[in-house]
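Figure 2 data, in text form.
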Amino acid sequence: MYKEVTKKNQTIRILILEDSPTDAELIIRALEDEDFIVDAKIVDEEHEFRHGISEFRPEIILSDYSLPTITGLEALAIATQECPEIPFVFITGTIGEEIAAETILNGAAGLILKSHLYKLPQTINKIINDESRWRQIRFNNAKERINLRIQKNQKALERMDEFITNRRTAKLSNEIVDDIKDMVKNLKGISNDLNNQKGE
């Protein structure tokens, strides 16, 4: 039987996409009133949002649905692309049932009305308690990024291997050529291992 555990006095790093400083303050206060220690970065532009994801490295993203320069769904799409392992929660004003369903289908972890901010701590606790799910997402995402980097390096080394093979000179010993071939072989092996783990 699932039992929710309330995490009091826990520091949580939150990226808040909100164009109203007052609303951002109310969001933070709602969490602090429930004894969360909030480390927050507040942004209201797309470039700030992207920078916040990469540099601030939040544990949770909270976003308004409608902002002057970016929509909540656009922000969700960016987050899904850049950091799918980070839970994304909408905090907005009145919203229709159809839009609410769309946000969840697009990968949001939750949706809270600004008039119901008292529900925010409970939502955050549920996300924290579901840490195993987000840990698995983080693990899969890390493997995917490593695999992509390996593939890029592998292609570069293969091009180098081809160049050296075709233009071998006295300055390029057989040992150097063999070393490069071994690097390509090793990278292929790592990539295959990651793919096999992914399928398990």
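Caption note: Residues 135-199 form one domain.
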